[in-house]
Amino acid sequence: MNNLSSRCILVCQHSSCRAFGSSQVLFAFQLAKLPPDVVVMSTGCQGQCSSGPTVRITPEEIWYCRVQPQDVAIIVEQHLYGGNPVTAKLHPRIHPNFSRDI
């Protein structure tokens, strides 16, 4: 990630997130057709164990919670390509001002 304009998808791989399928979420992001400025990385605990799997997009600091493999396509299309966060998956404690679709 040498380019300062790169974006990063950080997928928690700590035990509590893994128990809810974060390894499959990581794999889905790794297989997705991502914009050229985006990299995917696994992380340790991001401190959001009660709402995992946690996915964080930097440098925007958008936090998604309870992400499942089937959510990856919409995150890639709507957020990474379209620039619009997926409100239904935003972490409510971190993004309390966004209305949620659920």
What does this 3D model show about the protein?
- This protein has helices spanning 15-19, 22-31, 72-81; strands at 7-12, 38-43, 55-58, 62-64.
- It is an alpha+beta fold.
- It has a four-stranded mixed sheet, with helices on one face.
Keywords:
Glutaredoxin; alpha+beta; globular
CATH class: Alpha Beta
Cα-atom radius of gyration: 12 Å
Structural class: alpha+beta
- Return residue spans where pLDDT drops below 50 for at least 5 consecutive residues: none
The description of the largest β-sheet is: 4 strands, mixed
Write a brief structural summary.
It is built from three helices and four strands.
Give the topology, please.
Blueprint (H helix, E strand, L loop, with lengths): L6 E6 L2 H5 L2 H10 L6 E6 L11 E4 L3 E3 L7 H10 L21
Parallel strand pairs: 1-2
Antiparallel strand pairs: 1-3, 3-4
